[in-house]
Structures are given as C-alpha cells and as structure tokens.
Amino acid sequence: MRGMPLLSVTMANPQVKPPPKATLADQAKALPNALPTALPKALPKALPKALPKALSKAQSKTQTKTKGSKVNRAWINDHVNDPYVKLAKREGYRARAAYKLKEIDETFGLIKPGHLVVDLGSVPGAWSQYLRRKFLPKPPTGGGAAGGASPSALNGTIIALDILSMEPIEGVVFLQGDFREADVLDRLVQQMAGRLADVVVSDMAPNLSGIDSADAARVEHLVELAIDFTQAHMKPQGALVAKVFHGSGYDALVKLFKQSFVTVKPVKPKASRDKSSETFLVGIGLKKDQASHP
Ligand SMILES: C[S@@+](CC[C@H](N)C(=O)[O-])C[C@H]1O[C@@H](n2cnc3c(N)ncnc32)[C@H](O)[C@@H]1O
Q1: Is residue 32 classed as helix, strand or coil in its secondary structure?
Q2: pLDDT at 86 over 90
Q3: Smallest Cα–Cα separation from 231: which of 163, 292, 146, 181?
Q4: Atom of ligand 1 nearest to the CA of 128
C-alpha cells in the first residue's frame, strides 16, 4: 500500500504486464500515507499565494455585509422615524415628496386654480396628488363632499409624465415615456391641446451610477430639456421647478436658469433630507428672448 502511486502510469513495454490500475478506493486508502509526505512539500509553496487572497476575500465579504446592513438599518430607521413619512401616510400621499412641492408652492405661490401644470418624472405620484388636491373645488358651504368631485370638476389640468408606469390618479392625465425622446415630447404637446403650461415641475432624477461626472451630465441633460420645454410650451410669466443636485454641474445649471428666467431661486425644502445633495431651482418668468413661442 505504502508505495502505491496516487496516479496510475501507463507502461511503455507491451511485453511487461502493466500493474493493475489503482482504483479510486485504492487511491483514497493511500492518501493518509501519501499526504504526510506530500503536504509539507506542497503547502509552503501554495499557501503564501493562496492564503492572503482567501483571507482578503473573506474579509471584504464580511466588511461589505456589515457596512451594507448598517447602512440599510440606518436608512430604515431614518425612514420609519421620518415625520414626513408619517405625515404622508396620514394624509394619503404616495410619497413624502409631496411636502417638497407643497413648501415650494407655498413659498412662491406658483400654482393657482385654472392652471395647466406639467409634472415631469411623476411616479409614484405624490406631486400629482398634491396638484390634484390644489385643484379640487372648495366644498360647498352647507354640506356636500369635495372628495367625490368628478375629474371634470377639477379646477385645473395636470399632465403627468414618467418613464415608469403610474397608478392612476383621478383627474390626472398620465403619459408613460422617456422625456428625452422626441415622440414622447410630441405626445405630451398633443395632450396640451394647443394650451401653454402655467407651471412645469420636474422631479426627474436619472438612475445615478456613482460616477460624478457621468451623473452630473445626465442630470444636466434632463434639466436642459425641461428648460427647452418651458421655452417652447410655457406661458412667458410661467414657472419651472426642477430638481438638481449639488456637486459638479450645479453651477452650470444655475447659470442656465439665470439665462432663461427673470427670477431664479434655489430652494432646499425641509422635507428634502439634509443628507441628500438634492435641491430645487425655481425659475419664474421666461426672459423675453428665451421664449420660442409667440
Ligand atoms: C424622485 S422620482 C419622482 C417622485 C414624484 N415627484 C412624486 O412625487 O411621486 C423621479 C422620477 O423621475 C423619473 N424619470 C427619470 N428619468 C426620466 C425620464 N428621462 N423621463 C421620464 N421620467 C424620468 C423616474 O422614473 C422617477 O419615477
């Protein structure tokens, strides 16, 4: 047993009868004898390479898991305790984002009865819900339920658009499509039926890659398109609210807003988390040379 090879060798001379091939069972039996000699030889060679790799792999796995679950736990904690999340639940909003638009609207008095508002990047629909509530007719004094108002009874028009599908909101016209695409823009303009928007709100946010320059370019592109849209399809005295992010590209967007609108204000609503670099630019009144419609 002691001399039995771990791997069988084919003999070259056909006259000499080859020894019987070692079966797997034989090889397994031989292992306890072979290993004490083979391992001390092989290990010093293999371990210096293999061990650090294996250790660092295991370590990074544990670190990612710990870091990731810590971040998740912190996010869930923040979310559950967030007063705006609680308020949104109580007041029936689909997202706490509703309070960002509410604060901006209340600060600048942008949205008025009878307005046509275009809501870009509307999903899940909290901004559209806020707009709808603004356009609900006042409950008649002496009884009657405003909540039961029919869509046609809304005192204003909301056209919402998103690349994702949106659960319907009564009275809100929804278009699904990518705002960067020409045919989607055409559909949006068709829905406006020859009217110009009074207010355009854009909460559009691209999927961020984490690469600062690429993300900045994507955000910039969406905001530029929103500005182009206002210049072609918004009343001269109208307003654009657009989400932007601090970081590279922010200054360029403020500059662009200032070239396009008479009044430009950056706003960080209370409902926008401190940790988030998001902020909103409000542009009011198109500069005369910037409106491309008559
Ligand atoms: C922060 S969410 C908007 C939340 C919304 N304001 C609300 O109150 O529920 C951003 C939205 O922008 C949409 N979006 C991003 N890029 C878009 C694009 N190119 N065209 C249309 N929608 C886009 C996303 O699908 C996402 O639903």
Answers
A1: helix
A2: yes
A3: 292
A4: 8
With CA atoms as reference, report the closest residue to 280 among 260, 255, 253, 261: 253
pTM over 0.85: no
Among 102, 199, 204, which is best to mutate for testing ligand 1, by the most ligand atoms less than 8 A from CB?
Answer: 204
167 Cβ closer than 6 Å to some ligand 1 atom = no
3-state DSSP call for residue 78?
A: helix
Q: In the structure encoding, which two tokens stand for residue 60, read together?
A: 């990074």
**Which pLDDT score is estimated for 64?**
47
Catalytic option among 29, 53, 243, 258: 243
Q: 């709808």: which residue's tokens?
A: 132
User: Do 113 and 156 contact (CB within 8 A), yes or no?
Assistant: yes
Query: Is 205's C-beta closer than 6 angstroms to any atom of ligand 1?
Result: yes
How distant, in Å, are the alpha carbons of 166, 173, 230, 262 from that of 234? 24, 18, 5, 14
C-alpha 220/C-alpha 111 separation (Å) is 25
Helix (H) or strand (E) holding 171: none
Tell me which amino acid residue 183 is.
D
Half-sphere exposure of 104 (CA within 13 A, CB side): 34
C-alpha Rg value of the chain to the nearest Å: 33
Position in ligand 1 atom list of the atom nearest CA 95: 9
Does 49 participate in catalysis according to the annotation? no
Determine whether the shortest distance from the Cβ of 156 to ligand 1 is under 6 A: no
Residue 285 near ligand 1, beta carbon < 6 Å: no
Tokens of 58: 């295991």
Predicted confidence (pLDDT) at residue 73 exceeds the cutoff of 90: no
What are the structure tokens assigned to 183, written together? 């045919």
Residue 280: CB within 6 Å of ligand 1?
Answer: no
